[in-house]
Amino acid sequence: MLSRLPRLSRLRAVAVCAVPVVVLVGAAAFVPLPFSLAQPGMTADVLGENKGEPVITISGAKSRGTSGQLRMTTIEATGPDAHIGLGDVLDGWFRTDRAVMPRDAVYPNGDSVKEIEEYNAEEMRESQDTATEAALDHLGERSDDIEVALELADVGGPSAGLLFSLGIVDKLDGDGSGGDLTGGRVIAGTGTIDADGKVGAVGGVALKTQAARRDGATVFLVPKAECADAQSELPEGLRLIPVTTLKGAVDSLVALERGRGSVPSC
Questions:
Q1: Residue 230 contacts residue 206 (beta carbons within 8 Å)
Q2: Span 58-81, mean pLDDT?
Q3: Residue 62: which residues within 8 A CB-CB, separation 6 or more?
């Protein structure tokens, strides 16, 4: 006959061992964790105004009137000194409108809030200069003859580069035949850009697609390398167009506007 004593002993051991596990989990709920929580942020039409000021101002050449919108997109993240607990992380993992990201992937490790703000502002300034250079080079124009001022309050980082370049192209040349790049649509997107017009990945695209659709966009330009991320939580009614270069983005928008030619998809 089997004895019940060993079974009782095992149950007692499991119960005793379970106590410190529960204590540890309970303690973890109150310990700050090295994560940031992100959500869809603001968008801004680079063809229009932001806080009462035009985003793009051109001098030295005639600027054309435009229709439609080209909306740069952002994400909002908790600050580098925010207290993120286990409950916050678990909640973020189970929501489609939130993302849990390693804090050092959002903020340089060890930098103060002021240093991070200064760093992001510098990244934005460099992005604007490069976007202008890429746009004028695409159009065969010289920066000695045309000056472009870009102004976008309270936004940092380089991820608006592609949209800045497209806005400059639209204001100076449109689709090249008198029409607009947007075709009257609300088009959003994201992507860095270098002086040669190459588009780079940025991160957070799934949240940016949600921000874009929320603000009326029906088309979203996404760095090709991030197609899978953009598709993961793609809102209904938003069409993805992958891009690798400024020229490719312009060609895709012209083909979409005219209803002719190839428009790539993810």
A1: yes
A2: 92
A3: none
User: Torsion-angle region of residue 131: left (phi > 0), alpha (psi -120 to 50) or beta?
Assistant: alpha
Q: How far apart are CA 190 and CA 200, in angstroms?
A: 9
Instruction: Collect all residues with Cβ–Cβ distance below 8 Å to 34 and sequence separation of at least 6.
Output: 102, 103, 104
How many CA atoms lie within 13 Å of 11's alpha carbon, on the beta-carbon side? 5
Percent of the chain at pLDDT > 70 equals 86
Q: Which amino acid is at 135?
A: A
pLDDT above 60 (res 15): no
Q: Are 227 and 219 in contact (CB under 8 A)?
A: no
pTM over cut 0.85: no
Chain position carrying tokens 């435009």: 66
The C-alpha atoms of residue 261 and residue 247 are separated, in whole angstroms, by 14
State whether residue 98 is helix, strand or coil: coil
For residue 177, give every residue at least 6 positions away whose Cβ sits within 8 Å of its Cβ, in sequence order, or none.
none
Could you give the dihedral angle defined by the CA atoms of residues 133, 150, 185 and 237, in that order, rounded to the nearest 10 degrees? 90
Question: 181: closest CA among 70, 95, 89?
Answer: 70
